[in-house]
Backbone:
């Protein structure tokens, strides 16, 4: 049966088959968020993590990297929110702008399907952000502290 408004036209010939490309499993070096360095195993070697654990590391680096300042990264990687946190603007406006910057920084990643459940705690030049990430691997909760001037 045709979905066309003209029943004599077979639209199945013109429909694109939307087959999703197979994504390689996301892989990153294991990372210590508190010490801001790579983790090592018992043998003293760096090791890999996969899936959502790797995605958490990618998100952390994307949110902690200022956009357009490092030649090692493309223009798509990073964000512009560090200067925003230091500005004395209304907390509601700041929360909306932070949400927009976070969304812009993360949604180009093909492993991320959705960001939701944003919560913000803003105190002076520090903002703590919490949100949920729906990825191809499932859902994770993410929390990060953003400070003005920290890059």
Residues:
């Amino acid at each position: 049966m045709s979905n066309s408004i003209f029943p004599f036209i077979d639209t199945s010939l013109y429909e694109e088959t939307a087959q999703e490309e197979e994504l390689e499993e996301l892989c990153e070096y294991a990372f210590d968020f508190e010490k801001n360095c790579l983790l090592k195993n018992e043998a003293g070697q760096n090791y890999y993590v996969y899936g959502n654990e790797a995605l958490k590391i990618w998100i952390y680096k994307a949110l902690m990297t200022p956009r357009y300042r490092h030649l090692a990264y493309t223009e798509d990687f990073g964000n512009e929110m560090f200067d925003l946190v230091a500005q004395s603007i209304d907390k509601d406006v700041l929360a909306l702008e932070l949400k927009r910057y976070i969304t812009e920084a993360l949604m180009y990643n093909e492993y991320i399907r959705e960001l939701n459940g944003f919560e913000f705690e803003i105190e002076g030049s520090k903002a703590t952000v919490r949100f949920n990430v729906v990825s191809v691997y499932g859902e994770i909760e993410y929390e990060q502290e953003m400070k003005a001037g920290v890059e």
Notes: The chain has one domain: 25-147. The chain has a mean pLDDT of 82. The helical segments are 52-64, 82-86, 91-106.
